[in-house]
Amino acid sequence: MTDLPHRAPGRGATSRRVVVGAAWAVPVIVAASTAPAYAASLAASLVFDTFTAYGADYSGSTATRIKTQIQVRREWSATTPVVANPTVAVPFPASVAEGGAAVSTKGNGWSFGSVSGSASTAWTYTFTWTGTLDNSTQSTPELAFLIGRRPVASTNVSLTAYVTAAQATAASRTISATI
Asked: What is the pLDDT of residues 76-127, one digit of tens each?
């Protein structure tokens, strides 16, 4: 089949290929216009507002517990989703942490989840907050928990806390603490 030019008075020729090509361009433009809104709303960003750890409940000059305080915040965004029920995990070196369940957990909506690990490496403590973070309630209440501490001299350790939630990218924060 041959492309025959069509002429209107005073205009150049238009081929059938140009007309067919123009028809295919419209759906591509429509599909591309919805992509930015979808891409911008994939996941919220979480950060740690507070993360501290130190020796507590002393017997003489030796701490018998480790007190940790954590607060998580959802960064403000007009396009990311609400974050529900974030989970925090904090590994403690077995050289200073005893293992076993958290002695105490405080903070509105926070609950102790589990402890896992081994006495030869580290004990990881997990906690979950029941609630949602959005643009009006961006931060969790502060989580404060106590765990057992081995009867060893105070030592400087590096601790990293992790937070995860289905609607957010995972985040972490590392501190240096004397416990």
From this structure: 999 999 999 999 999 999 999 999 999 999 999 999 999 999 999 999 999 9
Q: What was the pLDDT predicted at 30?
A: 43
pTM: 0.77
Q: Which residues contact 128 (CB under 8 A, 6 or more apart)?
A: 85, 86, 87, 88, 110, 111, 113
Amino acid of residue 94: A
Q: Quick one: residue 33, left, alpha or beta (phi over 0 = left, psi -120 to 50 = alpha)?
A: alpha
**Contacts of 59 by beta carbon, 8 Å cutoff, 6+ apart:** 151
**Where does residue 140 rank: exposed (0-12), middle (13-18), buried (19+ CB within 10 A)?**
buried
